[in-house]
Design a protein that fits this description.
There is one protein chain. The chain has 264 residues and is an alpha+beta fold. The chain has 5 helices and 10 strands. It has one domain. The strands form 3 sheets. A 6-stranded mixed beta sheet has the order 1-4-5-6-7-8, sandwiched between helices. The protein has a two-stranded antiparallel ribbon with strand order 2-3.
Length: 264
Amino acid sequence: MKSPFPGMDPYLEEHWRDVHHSFLTYARDELQQHLPPELRARLEDRVYVEPENGDGRGIYPDVRVIEYPSRPGRSTATAGAGDVAVAEPIVVHGESEPATEGYIEIIDMASGNRIVTAIELLSASNKLPGEGQEKYLQKQREYRQGRVSLVEIDLLRSGKRITAVPKDRVPRSHRTTYHVCVTRGWLKSTWELYRVPLRDRLPTINIPLRESDVDVPLDLQLLIDRCYHNGRYDDLNYRVDPNPPLDSDDAPWAIELLAAKGLR
């Protein structure tokens, strides 16, 4: 059970909450095997109310409205201006449920659980205006001030690119569909960028630890393949365009790729 795409599957973007949780869990497990004895990788949560389509507050509700038969003698409509029947609403009170977003922190147990490295897989809430983006940018600043290394993995096409590297510092060669930015906590104004085009295999990237440590490799393609397989995403409908649609350069390539595999 494998995606027809050689790298990132753009159709997974519509299922990002599931992919996001799975990816970070698999990444944590991979890293754990290669860390020095006193370092640990831990999954953490950030709480926010997720924006919907970049406007307003998206809510994951825990209240359902159910229509019951009308009570005897109770009218379901009242007369309004111009004798227009106005339906009588029912009022339902409930609390909205904040969403949680995971990320990985590598901590040094020998130094009182100091955070060494943070690994962020960006989500729509990070890239669209709202509380989620504000909290992410605040955390980004705190990592920089605390000299914590930050690995930002952006595998979403929607939203604004908000990784730590200034936009005007990204060379044209690295303005690819997807994006990975690594900031080492002990280096100022220095960023490591990885090219991540749609048509290529996802890269294996270096995860920095302490300045004296050797980097740990993390194979992003292995993790996405695992998400696809374990999530049983072989039921994705490749006969329609992904959401959001691909750009004018990649769309014909994707259609041809899927047609060659009998999926389009």
